[in-house]
Specification:
Elements (H helix, E strand, L loop, with lengths): L2 E6 L6 H5 L2 H12 L7 E6 L10 E7 L6 H23 L7 E7 L13
Parallel strand pairs: 1-2, 3-4
Antiparallel strand pairs: 1-3
């Protein structure tokens, strides 16, 4: 399952500035990865208090590869569209001179385990 992690500088932006575009971003990931947006997870959180050399908004998408290799092929166009979409959205909300970065990582191998505790 692809996961989009969005970190923002809380002294400049508010969570609501990014929450309003969350579904659009899920749709963009779904389009590029040919995946149902309901199967893409998303988390929006402020950057930690001790952070250096980060942008005003950092988007990090992590995903396992797909059997056909389409996700790896789509990585550059996806990162461009994510960053440009967030930047345009924040400009429309009245923000200027902000920096937005987007990283797309496709992992060759990964392990996921789920364990339910209790009855």
């Amino acid at each position: 399952m692809p996961h989009l992690d969005i970190k923002y500088k809380s002294d400049v932006l508010q969570e609501s500035d990014l929450e309003t575009i969350a579904d659009t971003l899920l749709g963009i990931v779904g389009k590029h990865f040919q995946e149902n947006p309901d199967f893409v997870s998303l988390e929006i959180a402020p950057q930690h208090a001790v952070v250096r050399n980060r942008k005003h908004v950092d988007l990090e998408l992590n995903s396992s590869p797909d059997p056909d290799g389409l996700r790896a092929e789509a990585a550059k166009a996806l990162s461009d569209e994510l960053a440009e979409t967030v930047a345009a959205h924040l400009t429309d909300r009245g923000y200027n001179n902000l920096e937005v970065s987007a990283w797309v990582r496709i992992f060759d191998a990964g392990v996921y385990r789920y364990h339910r505790m209790g009855s």
